[in-house]
């Protein structure tokens, strides 16, 4: 069955399927653009596209030696893209998996009778966390707290000390005390517990911000570039609080704004506990 033709532009015939196809491709490209924008990988992608366009020009003018040289480079282009953009591809797949039907099955299966006794809602005490961060900011002690969304980030948490403790203001203050051996790294909070401390986070390679922020803020931005986590960071130098999300740093936020932001981001958080 042929698709109904809407209109024709030169030799191109457009149908409903063609338009849907173009819109889907555009949406995917836009998501990749959002992931890559402002990062070092974005500049590298522009370089790869430039080389490919140059290869097409060389091919058109029939320059065999230069065409062969650039052609050999383009043959390994796909492998190079996988290596260069592995962090961005991982984040893209993480976003797709989070929004897929299979991921939503968790919320469907929780209504089954045999899950009634082992599933409980919980709410992270963000007020206690922000209170601790406010004290640390007033006393000029830095801190960085990571709130994962889709996983506990165990692959990163293993770089620090495993704690698995309930959240308290005093515990957070003790961890980030400047005389504590754990104060330099990050704390990961998941399932309403402090899972690990002194965790090493990846640093952002965005050239536009590398000279603007210190290592702690670059780490906060870096982990949100690679994952869907939210990060609360306390500046040791300025004594201010900021929140990082999707590779962006939101500064000059007060206590109520941060609590509202975190509650909004984790409004539907749930945990499945073992019997």
- Give the domain tally: 2
CATH homologous superfamily label of the largest domain: DNA integrity scanning protein, DisA, N-terminal domain
Fraction in beta strands? 15-25%
Helix content: 40-55%
Structural class: alpha+beta
Question: At the first level of CATH, what is the class of the largest domain?
Answer: Alpha Beta
CATH topology of the largest domain: YojJ-like (1
The largest sheet has its strands arranged as 5-7-6-4-8-9-10
C-alpha geometry: elongated
pLDDT average, as an integer? 78
Radius of gyration, Cα only, in angstroms? Answer: 24 Å
Task: Give the H and E element order.
Answer: EEHHHHHHEHEHEHEEHEEEHE
Residue ranges: pLDDT <50 for 5 or more in a row? 101-105, 111-122, 270-275
Task: Tell me about this structure.
There is one protein chain. The chain is an alpha+beta fold and 275 residues long. It folds into two domains: 5-89, no CATH class; 119-269, YojJ-like (1. It has eleven helices and eleven strands. The protein has helices at 16-36, 40-60, 64-75, 77-84, 86-99, 101-109, 126-138, 154-157, 169-175, 215-226, 255-265, and strands spanning 5-9, 12-15, 119-121, 143-147, 161-166, 186-190, 193-199, 230-234, 241-245, 248-250, 270-272. The strands form three sheets. Strands 5-7-6-4-8-9-10 form a seven-stranded mixed beta sheet, sandwiched between helices. Strands 1-2 form a two-stranded antiparallel sheet. It has a two-stranded antiparallel sheet with strand order 3-11. Helix 7 (126-138) packs across helix 9 (169-175) and helix 7 packs antiparallel against helix 11. The protein is elongated and about 70 Å long. Residues 101-105, 111-122 and 270-275 have low confidence and may be disordered.
